[in-house]
Amino acid sequence: MADRIFAELENLSNEMAENKHDYLQKIQQTPPPWTVMQKASFQPDIQELQGNLDDWKENIAKLEAKANVMRNDDDAKAEMFTRIDMVKNTKRALIKDLKKIILQGNSYINL
After folding, report:
1. What is the largest CA-CA distance in the chain?
2. Alpha-carbon distance 99 to 53, whole Å?
3. Tens-place pLDDT, residues 71-108
4. How far is Cα 18 from Cα 22, in angstroms, rounded to an integer?
5. Could you list the residue ranges forming a coiled coil in this record (predicted)?
């Protein structure tokens, strides 16, 4: 089960990177301040990024919960936490960028 979640995280990180790229291209073509119609166009993009981020956090939480119930003397527990930490560290910049994009995007929509 854990391998399946790790695979889902990899797929999700690829989707997040693609959605980030698409959003940044779109915002470059249509910089704020936005009209009401442009806000309506950007809002689903921002919501999709938020959904990606929420899914990421949910999958990480599932893995951490799975690792936490493992016995402390089980070598697999340490390996699981190492894998989780590696995935989180590898994608840290992407996650940080998404959080910033979401906050800025929501601010632009509220202008």
Report:
1. 59
2. 8
3. 998 899 999 999 999 999 999 999 999 999 999 999 99
4. 6
5. 46-73
| Per-residue DSSP letter, 23 | H
Is there a contact between 101 and 49 (Cβ–Cβ < 8 Å)? Answer: yes
Q: What share of the chain in percent tops pLDDT 70?
A: 100
Q: How far apart are CA 38 and CA 30, in angstroms?
A: 8
Non-local CB neighbours of 52 within 8 Å, separated by 6+ positions = 12, 15, 16, 19, 98
Q: Is the separation of the CB atoms in 20 and 94 below 8 Å?
A: yes
For tokens 């995935």, what's the residue? 87
What does each C-alpha distance from 58 to 42, 47, 93, 107 come to in angstroms? Answer: 24, 16, 18, 25
In one letter, which amino acid is 63? Answer: L
Please report how the helices 92-109 and 75-90 are oriented relative to each other, as an axis angle in degrees rounded to 10: 50
Query: Rounded to whole angstroms, what are the CA distances from 75 to 19, 68, 78, 79, 86?
Result: 37, 13, 5, 6, 17
